[in-house]
């Protein structure tokens, strides 16, 4: 039996407590600091756990005002299993989905991006370049770049779905970057793929942005040695 991560344990326990009515609908959860102290985990674990509750439709989060309980049972909508990174076929299927979704987002971003969007993408790329050989920091900035593209679509549904997917796949992204760091020159080549996506978006070239994003994620899947034939 696979051991749950700290994030999964905390999210599961909070969901159970919400379901029992320990935290009634309309009330706020304790602060992130209080929850971190209660469970003996970091603030990052609490953020990820409450994000899972949000995607399940249990809480609403607002910056500066914490998490408010909005339902006792989670929505039965689209969800990625927590152990996705451990199942090669399932991870391949999600990457297949992600390739088309993020390629479409890149094309929309090329048509709709504004100066603020481009600045956010550039900031993520600059930070990423400073941490190319660091799998953990690198994955954070990698995810930030993809989320900046999603925001540049100015379509809240793209933003929400891709935000969810990128957070859920952070473990796989970190694994991919760790593998990349072990191969001489590969991290720089991967960064070049990101730059190609950014340049196409900045130039307003929707078709080129779509192709660059699709190819980047296809290459990422290959670096994780995912076989899409397993998803059939």
From TrEMBL:
UniProt-listed SMART domains: FCD (SM00895), HTH_GNTR (SM00345)
Protein name: GntR family transcriptional regulator
GO molecular function, one term: DNA binding
Organism annotation: Bordetella genomosp. 12
UniProt keyword list: DNA-binding, Transcription, Transcription regulation
CDD domains: WHTH_GntR
Pfam families: FCD, GntR
Alphabetized SUPFAM superfamilies for the sequence: GntR ligand-binding domain-like, Winged helix' DNA-binding domain
Organism classification: Bacteria, Pseudomonadati, Pseudomonadota, Betaproteobacteria, Burkholderiales
PROSITE patterns (UniProt xref): HTH_GNTR
